[in-house]
């Protein structure tokens, strides 16, 4: 989950998010190097008493500072496109879950075998137990088997919402009347938090998403118990 | 032969598989097509008299199976479509479309 005064991304819980973090590190390093160079050049120019009134042109440096940026851009574009296509790979999901956005909660449907559906409301601050996270916890979590390709179909029942879980590198808009597909594999067991990412009214900030990744047997036990409860 | 393929696929069914007709992010049509497929199956022309009964307009898996059985056709396509649309389509959409089919206001081409 997010931490106070956090600067970087949350730790990755899916292979795609790991790739995105590495790409971001790579690109940010390029940005820092260029910024450092520019800052140096500016301070050098500003702090010298030397002047040169007779310069007219310079073919060589012009060529260098055209070619070098082009190379830098290619060095950014190639990993970027690699990840773009990686995220677009045809996958073979083991499980399909529908995440439906409502004002102001999410509902999850697991209908591959039986009809399992439940709502997921935020736990109000006054009802939190010690150790729980304010504005992030929900009464029912979206439980998912770890290390299994999962397909999530995101939609909405009223207005626009958006289903996002940063640790998994997932964000997908929930549009009424449209079924948007996203997929992920969760590499390790854990609890991952997200928040609605499209303004949807008064309680837009109070309809979080909680994904709990567990071993397959635990997932099966959980889904049986949820079906019995219903 | 196709029936055996579908039966094998149904036995190993985990979830709706990748459908090359709908390779992109927007899966709305995938859900709708499978729902239509399921409900179109039972509208194939047959000549049994029970079809002229009042609740002929009520679509469901059972009628799909019944119709295909009456035709002497294999019923496994019905089950395949049903599994796939149940996996993909939101429950509220399915209920809404079922109600519309009952009322005769379903917008799809059947």
Automatic annotation (TrEMBL), chain A:
Source organism, top-level taxon: Eukaryota
Cellular location(s): Mitochondrion inner membrane
Transmembrane portions of the chain: 27-51, 63-85
Molecular function as annotated in GO: copper ion binding; cytochrome-c oxidase activity; oxidoreductase activity
Lipid bilayer topology: Multi-pass membrane protein
Protein family: Belongs to the cytochrome c oxidase subunit 2 family.
Protein name per its UniProtKB record: Cytochrome c oxidase subunit 2
Upper lineage: Eukaryota, Metazoa, Chordata, Craniata, Vertebrata
């Amino acid at each position: 989950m997010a931490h106070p005064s956090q600067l970087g991304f949350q730790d990755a819980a899916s292979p795609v998010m790991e790739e995105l973090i590495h790409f971001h590190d790579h690109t940010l390093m390029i940005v820092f190097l260029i910024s450092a160079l520019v800052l140096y050049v500016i301070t050098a120019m500003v702090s010298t008493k030397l002047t040169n009134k007779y310069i007219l042109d310079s073919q060589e440096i012009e060529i260098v500072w055209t070619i070098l940026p082009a190379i830098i851009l290619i060095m950014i574009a190639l990993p970027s496109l690699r990840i773009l296509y990686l995220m677009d790979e045809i996958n073979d999901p083991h499980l399909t879950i529908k995440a439906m956005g409502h004002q102001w909660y999410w509902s999850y449907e697991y209908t591959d075998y039986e009809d399992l559906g439940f709502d997921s409301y935020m736990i109000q601050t006054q009802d939190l137990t010690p150790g729980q996270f304010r504005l992030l916890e929900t009464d029912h979590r979206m439980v998912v088997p770890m290390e299994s390709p999962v397909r999530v179909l995101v939609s909405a029942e009223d207005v626009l919402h958006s289903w996002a879980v940063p640790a998994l590198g997932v964000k997908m808009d929930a549009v009424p009347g449209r079924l948007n597909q996203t997929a992920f594999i969760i590499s390790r067991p854990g609890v991952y938090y997200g928040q609605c990412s499209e303004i949807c009214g008064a309680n837009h900030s109070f309809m979080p998403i909680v994904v709990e990744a567990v071993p397959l047997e635990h997932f099966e036990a959980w889904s049986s118990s949820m079906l019995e409860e219903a | 032969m196709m029936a055996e393929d579908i039966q094998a696929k149904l036995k190993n069914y985990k979830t709706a598989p990748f459908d090359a007709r709908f390779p992109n992010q927007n899966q709305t049509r995938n859900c709708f097509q499978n729902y239509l497929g399921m409900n179109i199956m039972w509208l194939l022309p047959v000549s049994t008299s029970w079809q002229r009964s009042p609740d002929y307009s009520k679509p469901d898996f059972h009628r799909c199976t019944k119709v295909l059985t009456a035709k002497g056709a294999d019923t496994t396509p019905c089950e395949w479509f049903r599994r796939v649309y149940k996996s993909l389509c939101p429950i509220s959409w399915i209920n809404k479309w079922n109600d519309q089919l009952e009322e005769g206001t379903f917008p799809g081409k059947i």
